[in-house]
Amino acid sequence: MNEYDYTGDKTKNYFTAYLQKCIRWKRWNYLKKKEKIGRVEKPLEESLVDFSSSIDEMIELRYREEILSKEREGQYPEWNELADQRLTEALMMLREDERHFIYQHVFEERTFREIGCINGIKEDKIKNIYYYAIYKIRKWMGGKS
């Protein structure tokens, strides 16, 4: 005799069938809900990892935007405010005039002709000093000559 066979009281049997159906339904709902939560939780965990790296990217982007807005207003960064420590050290090893010409050409975006007019030096000499300074920076930082 199995559990589905009729064993006596008809009302008791209907109630037992009803309870079995309810238990199956609740169990099925529980398993479906658990499966759904499992599917949703895993992508959320993965997205949290991606989200933390995107926060770093957003901070870096905001920092760059602030620097650009300051440059638009004519406020240029100081040498010690540069992010790359090796680059800052290499720039500090240059002569004062080399740093000055790099600063005018890179940060102030002046042409070699304008730099020459401002400093009273020929354009070709400014170019030579500038490119030799760039060569020295690359050499000190271990890059291509």
Automatic annotation (TrEMBL):
<dbReference type="InterPro" id="IPR013324">
    <property type="entry name" value="RNA_pol_sigma_r3/r4-like"/>
</dbReference>
<protein>
    <submittedName>
        <fullName>Sigma-70 family RNA polymerase sigma factor</fullName>
    </submittedName>
</protein>
